[in-house]
Specification:
alpha+beta, Alpha-Beta Plaits, 3 domains, 5-stranded mixed β-sheet, globular
């Protein structure tokens, strides 16, 4: 069966973390960094994704974003697949660049937005890539300099961030800088990189207090927010699952998509279902596997039967690109 569904409704605030496979580097030099940042901007623009904060490190990246109409999974798939392909070509390497599944935490905006922005933008300072806030203001591989208008990236929504402090540009930048400076002493803040009851509520003491008062509190490892916020998100997900196509209707829809996609790609259904390894068939199989599992709610086995591969192969596709 597929893993737990991503909480991927358009307009949802996500803290996304992506690591290199086995913690290996994902950038080798500034050309790679420029390529990643350019790719991120283009993908954000084409998918309607709002990016508020980001930090590109040596072996991982943090992004705070609000998903567009295409959803988080489409944005991440286009960003990571395109970058990995270009990186491998440039460095004459093969194989996976990123860990199979990026981590995304749905975040409640009101209590966490500014803390997440500062936490992400302070990553280069905590890691020793820069030595001071003044140096961070000119550092090109995080969104901090963009918020301060020292570097221009039109795709990053700096206005939204500054709007938390003032409608006047100078006052807003001053307020933002002061806030970030005050956040330095907080350190790594593990509560901002994961959800769950302990992190959302504020530690074991608060959890124990709730238990003593016999107060129920909803929690989920994929969500950072209050119990009420978690319940609201999970209710929305449950409703979306109920609206999915019944199994027979999903298979009928899947067969129609297979025929149409094969016609468009000028390959035969027989070749697809016969397990052809031609590049056109492999690319089409990947596209359809993601649609079948993530959109139509099909099982790996059900999708595999239509695509001429094993359920394990569908699992690998969804794990890597979904």
């Amino acid at each position: 069966m597929p893993r737990g569904a991503r909480l991927d409704a358009p307009g949802t605030l996500h803290h996304v973390m992506v690591r290199g496979i086995e913690s290996n580097s994902i950038v080798a030099d500034d050309d790679d960094r420029r390529f990643f940042v350019t790719r991120m901007g283009l993908t954000a623009t084409t998918t309607g994704t709002s990016i508020y904060a980001w930090a590109l490190m040596t072996n991982h990246v943090h992004i705070l974003l609000k998903s567009g109409t295409a959803g988080l999974s489409t944005f991440m798939r286009k960003l990571l697949t395109g970058y990995a392909t270009g990186y491998n070509r440039r460095h004459k390497r093969h194989g996976h660049l990123f860990q199979n599944r990026y981590k995304s935490i749905v975040c409640e905006e009101e209590p966490y937005f500014l803390r997440l922005v500062s936490y992400i933008h302070l990553n280069p300072l905590r890691a020793g890539l820069v030595t001071s806030l003044e140096e961070l203001e000119r550092y090109p591989w995080s969104g901090h300099a963009v918020v301060l208008n020292r570097i221009r990236h039109e795709w990053q929504d700096r206005v939204y961030v500054l709007g938390y402090f003032s409608q006047r540009e100078s006052a807003a930048r001053q307020g933002y800088l002061q806030f970030v400076a005050e956040e330095i002493d907080r350190g790594r803040q593990p509560e901002l990189t994961g959800g769950g009851l302990i992190r959302s509520i504020g530690g074991w003491s608060e959890v124990k207090s709730l238990r003593k008062r016999q107060e129920k509190q909803y929690s989920d490892e994929r969500i950072l927010g209050s119990g009420e916020f978690v319940k609201e998100i999970l209710d929305d997900v449950e409703e979306a699952v109920k609206e999915r196509l019944p199994a027979k209707a999903a298979e009928t829809e899947a067969r129609e998509r297979l025929v149409q996609a094969c016609e468009h790609a000028e390959v035969t259904v027989k070749a697809m279902q016969g397990g052809s390894r031609k590049r056109e068939c492999s690319e089409l199989r990947k596209q359809l596997a993601l649609e079948y599992v993530l959109e139509l709610g099909m099982t790996y086995a059900g999708a595999a039967r239509l695509l001429g591969v094993s359920a394990a192969a569908v699992n690998r596709i969804v794990s890597r690109f979904g």
